[in-house]
Amino acid sequence: MLPFLSLVVGSLAILLLGILVYRRNWKSVSYRIFFFLCTIFAVWAVVNYISFRVETAVAALWWVRLVMFLAVLQGVPFFLLVHTFPRSTFALSKRTVIGLLLVMCVAMAVTLTPLVFSRVELVTGEPPHPTAGPGMLIFIPVTIGPIFAGLWVLARKLGKAQGLEKNQLQYLLLGALSMYALIIIFIFLFVQLFRSTVFVPFAP
Questions:
Q1: Is the model's pTM score more than 0.70?
Q2: Interatomic CA distance for residues 66 and 70, integer angstroms
Q3: Which residue numbers in the chain have pLDDT < 50?
């Protein structure tokens, strides 16, 4: 019951935040990326929840792969968001943006193959236990790398900002640090290093 409440409350809150921001200035690239990220987070939470409710190993494997597929969609857009915010247009060149998106698409494709997860073990009363493959060497840098790069860019921008923009960047940095620290520690590291998925249902 608690994981389901976490899913409903968390997903609805994320979507509501994204919609409120998008309605405030839908023409701004920064606001559009933020709305996109909120939507991806909400969908990821739902897919993540379903992956724990399937009853066959084959179904669990594909749902877990879809969880990873959506996780890739979070790193590069986050970097683009913090690099662009508070501008209404991209601060990076068009070629750079396209290059980042192409790398992201390659990593997304890899998550749907046995290269990332080759199999899933189902144990009664426990979440799925996936077996990681060599594709993690692509997934990890493409997903987590842009997050660390984005946090670094955000910290640099915060040091130079003043007034309202400084306050906005402070909230963004605090929120991003809190969220990604919790995800990396309790979702990624616990699964990869300790083979524990006890916290995964509470990801939302």
A1: yes
A2: 6
A3: none
